Amino acid sequence: MTGPIPPSLSSYLVLPPQDTLVLVTDVISATSNWVLLRFIYAALKGHERQPLRAADDGSNVTAGGHDDTAVVLVSWMRDYILWRDTARRAVGLDLASLQNQGRFVFVDGLSTFFGADVAPDPVSAAAAAPKHAHLTSPTTEHIQSTISAAVTQLKALKPNSKILLMLDYPSILLETTLPPIKSAELTSMLLRLRPQVHSTIVSLPGDLPLMQAATADVPQASTPMETENAAFLVGCVHESRLVVGTRRLETGYASDVSGVVRCTKGGGSDLEAQDGTLDVKESEWLYYVGADLSVKVWTR
Q1: Residue 150 has pLDDT above 70, yes or no
Q2: For residue 264, which phi and psi values (nearest 5 degrees)?
Q3: What is d(CA 151, CA 263) in angstroms, rounded to the nearest whole number?
């Protein structure tokens, strides 16, 4: 019996190399939540990993699954209860226990960000492992300071830990804030956050209506929202070491296939030679997410 991570993806869904960015894209009919959960699992629990780089003595060094790793998950689309329950069902992770160990922090960008009457649980609780933080203001300054506070507390608790920052749908800030946040502001915030952590994963929608502003053949003028979404996503592609995308089948619905997952190089993959990381092999598979949230992946 294989683990939660399909063998075909075992060399991709690992703790990314230091200072790198991984981009995960999806569409409404083929969401990538199962990919993000397996990135979290790989970072916190590990699996049978493929060697990602060569050490100075010629031995292989693997990534992911170390006891000194921690995850800061910032989500604007899903609340903590959903992440906790799906993580337990899909990959067997007990996020509550990992929070008590100081290895997982959830930053809630949904419950209070849009005006819900929920009492914030400050991340700076004294003499305790950080567990939750809440975003309460739609400004990049507040968002950055809240995330930075969570990262700082994890580092204070475990100074040598490798922290993986995951941003789930930050592009919603381009669509829902007044005055609207621009893609340049969001990109600048990301650039300021990345040096504070080991590596970063960003999840964004890749639906055609949000991306048509980046294509040459546009039948009509794009809206400001479409333009800003396309600019932010394209910018992330250029910065990323790896791009993992999920989409539906081009031929339509199939009861035994949930969609297509594709792993490709990003613009940042050219920087890998500096740290000896192996090149990204571009591949594409079909996948099926079962009722129990297990995932099967196979070649086309």
Answers
A1: yes
A2: -135, 165
A3: 28
